[in-house]
Amino acid sequence: MRIAVVRETREGETRVALVPELVGRLTTLGYDVLVEPGAGERALLADAEYADAGAVLDPDAVDDADLVVSVQPLDPGTVRRLRRGATTVSFLPVGQELGLVADLRDLGITSLAMELVPRISRAQSMDALSSQSLVSGYRCAVVAVGLLRRFFPLNMTAAGTVQPAEVVVLGAGVAGLQAIATAKRLGAVVRAYDVRAAAAEEIRSMGAKAIELDLETLDGAGGYAREMSEDRAARQRELLAPYIANADALITTAAVPGRTAPLLVEAATIEQMRPGSVVVDLAADSGGNVEGAVAGTIVRIGHAQVWGGRNVPSQMPGPASRLYAQNIVNLVTLLTRADADGAPTLDPDLDDEILAAACVTHDGVVRHEPTRVALE
Ligand code: NAD
Q1: pLDDT(112) > 90
Q2: Which of 69, 126, 155, 195 could pair covalently with 162 via S-S, beta carbons 3.0-4.6 A apart?
Q3: With a threshold of 0.80, does the pTM exceed it?
Q4: What is the pLDDT of residue 50?
Q5: CA neighbours closer than 13 Å in the CB half-sphere of residue 317
Q6: How much is the ipTM here?
Q7: Residue nearest to atom 4 of ligand 1 (CA)
Q8: Residues with beta carbon inside 6 Å of ligand 1?
Q9: 166 touches 248 (CB < 8 A)
Q10: Statement: residue 256 has pLDDT above 90
Q11: Among 53-57, 219-223, 310-314, where is mean pLDDT lowest?
């Protein structure tokens, strides 16, 4: 079975879908791995490392591949080079990629979207949303430390005492909890808020203080948050404003699946922050939690520097690729079985709960219901 690893072409993408260490594991199991030259370059992984792990470097890797793995969706030109019946595994934000989904359908490609892998216990090892959020959350805290021109921890010295930084984190999912844990490890005083009922306990378990607001909690399906009404959103912004005005660093990570990110903080609130304060908005790429944040750059609002995240996992391409690759290998294992000679063969059971949820197109049909409806 031939697995192709592409060199990512989307602007700003630095990750790669398989790292040499895991290529070595696949080749030992009998898979043939073909890698486009330079695939790992931006993640600081040399072609020679892939070759040493048993991969074949091949600019035409995708042409005869049974399975093509990537981080971003393949570009339309690459999709047209695939053989009918080939399988692709990548992030595939179906709502934004309807044209590509139609191509995959029409060309008879089986496509699986990593963000559609269900968040059930059995699929945890394939959960790329979580692995990449872990990277993002850590990165957000480190960016805040880097921009803030003061200590995070308390320092008691002969020259006097330096008070710790006050950090507020909004949104305590996978990324938010990692930002909290990182800021705590660095010694900051951390307060955090999330709309889900279970979040307060999770925040406290990280050693942070949970901000408790006199508002209804918003638990949706599958452990995710529900969208706020505009009234509740306005009240939440008002109640959070004093905490934000008092913070040295604000980190926002709030999201609601399938929606643009909720607006949690108005520019007028940022204007109340002290000179030297820092705002890190992980959600800037998907609408923004902070009014005025711009993805991929730093803007000044009042006295604060406001950093807007853009493809944040790509800012730590080595570890992000390593974690993503492990998710991919676990999914590949689910897609294959050993043939009579013990060699791995692509043979997905699309009725399996995980594959049924993650499969977007197969055999000329869009299997992901909302996408099929959107394409009609
Ligand atoms: P996400 O990226 O969709 O959202 C990030 C956070 O933003 C969530 O915690 C959400 O509650 C919060 N949020 C949304 N609107 C908000 C608002 N108005 N104000 C403040 N916060 C707001 O979520 P995620 O990080 O992917 O994880 C969400 C949940 O899923 C968590 O409970 C997580 O533990 C759970 N989870 C479970 C599994 C599993 O069982 N395999 C895997 C991953 C995550």
Answers
A1: yes
A2: 155
A3: yes
A4: 98
A5: 18
A6: 0.95
A7: 255
A8: 119, 124, 127, 129-130, 133, 170-176, 193-196, 199, 223-225, 228, 253-257, 262, 264
A9: yes
A10: no
A11: 219-223
